[in-house]
Structures are given as structure tokens and as C-alpha cells.
Amino acid sequence: MNTSTHFNLTARVLHWLMAAMILAMLFIGVGMVASISQRPWLIDLHRPLGIAILLLVIVRLGNRLRHAPPPLPADLPAWQAFAAKASHWVLYGLMFAMPLLGWATVSAAGYPVTMFAGFQLPPIAPHDPTLYAWLRDAHGWLARVLFATVLLHLSAALYHAWVRRDGVFQAMARGGRGGGEA
Ligand code: HEM
């Protein structure tokens, strides 16, 4: 059981960095579907940024499994503690699923999975129009689920910061005293 009151430095850096990257990806994704003229540069950004999220979430999950998070306040209603834990695992699942589905979508479309000029990833799905349609839909629907979960997560974080003022938000916002968990 973790006795520290704050997330470790790796967890905090990855949390805020990935929060910005994921929000950017949701808007880049919607932008490239909505605008034909902006689509080329947006999709050129979407692919490598998405794969960067995939690499970072591997590091993040490893850190999370090796370092237990600080405990939730003892007086938090059980349903809120359950919702917090469940939503965190949903977010982890989506951080893996979204880039993998995007990568598989481009593969099934038969397009090169270009990261930057001269560097491509191998396909991870066969070139198949039916599979492409299924993966493309799944990527779009899970993006909506991700957006909704991020909004719930943000609302809960602000509830802890401004209403309960119970230290849950500060656990991710800054390090603890004494430098132990930096
Ligand atoms: C965390 C990672 C990712 C997020 C949050 C994300 C988000 C989105 C969103 C919001 C859309 C628009 C969906 C719609 O309106 O139906 C989209 C579309 C798309 N994404 Fe991603 N994406 C991610 C990773 C990737 C990756 C890694 C690739 C490819 C390597 C990729 C390829 C695509 C493609 C091909 C489309 C469809 C574009 C179109 O049909 O016009 N995505 N993504």
C-alpha cells in the first residue's frame, strides 16, 4: 500500500503531457474529418502524435504498476471511489485502443503508415475494405467515448479541487513535501 500523498514525478509529467496530447488529438481528428483543405497537414500530424501516445502509455502503465497511486480520501463515498478507479482503467484502455485502431485503420485502407518523410511503420492489419470500414467506425466511436470520459474525469478533478478540497487534485498537480516522492 502506498503511504505517499502524491503521484511520483514520472506519473505527473506523463499525466499532463499526455492530457495535452490527447486533447490535441481529439481536435485534430475532428478537424481532419471536417475540413478537406486542412486534412493533409492535420493527418500528417495525427499519425505520429498518436503513435507517440501509444509509446508513452506503455511507459506510463509500467510506472503505474510499479508505483501504487496515493490512496483516495477515506471519507470518499464508495461509489465515487469505484467510479474514479473504473474511469482510470477505461482511460488506460482507450489510450492503448485509440492509437492501435488508428494504425490498423490506415493499414486496412492499404495506405502507408507514414510517421515522417522516409519513415513508415509496418501494417498491422490486412488490406481489406470491409475491415477498414469496421475499424474506421470503431476509431470514431471510441473517440467519442474517450472525449466523454475525459470530460467526466475533468469534472471530477475540479470537484475535488474546488468543492471537496481534499488533496486529490494536488496529488497530481505537484510533488509532496520532503522530496521523497519528488
Ligand atoms: C490517442 C490517439 C488518437 C486519438 C485520440 C484519435 C482521435 C481521432 C478522432 C477524434 C478522429 C475523428 C473521428 C470522427 O470524427 O469520426 C480520428 C480519425 C482518424 N484517425 Fe485517429 N486518433 C488517434 C490515433 C490515431 C493514429 C495513431 C492513427 C494512424 C496511425 C489515426 C488515424 C486516423 C484516421 C485514418 C482517421 C480517419 C480520418 C478520415 O476518415 O477522414 N489515429 N482520430
TrEMBL record:
It is found in: Cell membrane. GO terms for biological process: respiratory electron transport chain. It comes from the Bacteria. The chain crosses the membrane at residues 12-33, 45-62, 89-111, 141-162. This is Cytochrome B. One of its GO terms (cellular component) is plasma membrane. PANTHER family: BLL0291 PROTEIN, CYTOCHROME B561. Belongs to the cytochrome b561 family. Its cofactor is heme b. Residues 6-175 form the Cytochrome b561 bacterial/Ni-hydrogenase domain. InterPro entries: Cyt_b561_bac/Ni-Hgenase, Cytochrome_b561_oxidase, Di-haem_cyt_TM. GO terms for molecular function: electron transfer activity; heme binding; metal ion binding. It is a multi-pass membrane protein. The lineage of its organism: Bacteria, Pseudomonadati, Pseudomonadota, Gammaproteobacteria, Lysobacterales. Keywords: Cell membrane, Electron transport, Heme, Iron, Membrane, Metal-binding, Transmembrane, Transmembrane helix, Transport.
